[in-house]
Design goal:
By secondary structure, the chain is of the alpha+beta class. It has helices at residues 3-17, 66-79, 121-126, 129-134, 136-156, 158-172, 178-200, 208-214, 250-265, 267-271, 316-329, and strands at 26-34, 37-47, 50-57, 83-87, 91-100, 103-113, 231-237, 240-247, 285-286, 301-303, 309-311, 333-338.
């Protein structure tokens, strides 16, 4: 569908879902200045005569790009509008204008496919009329942003934080536990990162793997032009791309990649017997969600198809490393892009 048909067939229902009505509180073709010219925003969401959110629409036949992101961000900055949505009816990108002391910028706070929208209630809630009017939107998105920033800090400073924690324990308890404490501190940070990811997605977001599993399908191949997730894994064989998998959650992308290797390249036969323990502690892949000793539960995992379980309590560097090692066992190469 082109833009006009996308607006008529999809986006008016989307606006109605969030309680924005034309013409009561939604104005079409709202004029804004950007890049030295006057442009028209497709939908301006209005409260008390002032635009509080912009929705910029593209046709379903048009892939969203970084230029489209910049276009909407410029509109929001120009009119001091705090909330924005960019969509082609198939993909929905949510934005927030943030003011921090003298710094003002626009950040993308969500990137959701149409089929996932019913499972992303927290993000949708932030763009409802009542939530914006009451100020609840800022709290919802503020919590998501804080968690993402905490995750980035934990992943970037993991080693230094583990040393600091072990030093505190050594000072308070005994120097003899210093090395053990550092190892345990790193594992704790990994668990914390995994828990943060779970809370960010606590509104029930489903990955492509989960959706495919419910339909009895394998994860679909994604063309490079359709990739728009934060984390991208490209699996290659014989110098050609076999599949491109993407998403906004590291653990889901890791699970998608491992599922692909299991179903298409006989990975399990290459790592048997299960549990597959690449180090000396955790079962990376098992046929039940338990620790190698058989007595403790697998702490954080994704259930794969065919009854296998993938341990996912790693930072993003280790997730990427494990994907590469498993691909190596299948004589395949991996290229990682995006936020990896």
């Amino acid at each position: 569908m082109d833009e006009a048909n996308t607006k008529a067939a999809v986006l008016r229902d989307f606006l109605d879902l969030l309680d924005w009505q034309i013409p009561e509180n939604t104005q079409l073709e709202y004029s804004v200045e950007a890049f030295g010219q006057t442009y028209k925003v497709d939908y301006a969401l209005i409260l008390d005569g002032t635009p509080v959110a912009f929705l910029e629409a593209k046709g379903a036949d048009t892939a969203l790009t970084a230029d489209h992101d910049e276009q909407l961000s410029s509109y929001m900055m120009n009119k001091n509008v705090n909330y924005g949505v960019l969509t082609n009816g198939k993909q929905y990108r949510f934005f927030q204008r943030r003011v921090d002391a003298s710094n003002v910028d626009v950040q993308k706070v969500g990137n959701v496919s149409l089929e996932d929208l019913p499972n992303r209630l927290a993000v949708l809630k932030a763009y409802e009329k009542d939530a914006i009017e009451s100020g609840e939107s800022g709290k919802i998105l503020g919590r998501i942003n804080e968690l993402r920033e905490a995750r980035r800090t934990l992943e970037a400073d993991k080693d230094d934080l583990a040393v600091e924690l072990s030093n505190v324990l050594a000072d308070e308890v005994s120097d003899s536990i210093s090395s053990l404490a550092e190892t345990q501190a790193k594992e704790m940070i990994d668990r914390l990162v995994a828990d943060i990811e779970s809370e960010i997605d606590a509104d029930g977001k489903k990955s492509k793997r989960e959706i495919a599993g419910s339909l009895g399908e394998t994860p679909e191949k994604v063309e490079a032009s359709d990739v728009d997730g934060e984390y991208v894994i490209e699996i290659q064989g014989d110098e050609s791309t076999l599949v491109v998998l993407d998403g906004d959650n590291q653990s889901d992308v890791m699970a998608n990649a491992v599922d692909y290797l299991i179903q298409n390249h006989d990975l399990i036969s290459r790592v048997e017997p299960l549990p597959y323990v690449p180090g000396n502690k955790n079962a990376l892949i098992n046929n039940q969600p338990v620790h190698p000793d058989g007595e403790r539960d697998m702490r954080t995992y994704r259930e794969l198809t065919n009854g296998y379980y993938l341990f996912t309590s790693f930072n993003k560097r280790d997730k990427k490393r494990h994907i590469q090692r498993l691909a190596d066992k299948c004589d395949l190469a991996v290229e990682s892009r995006g936020e990896w």
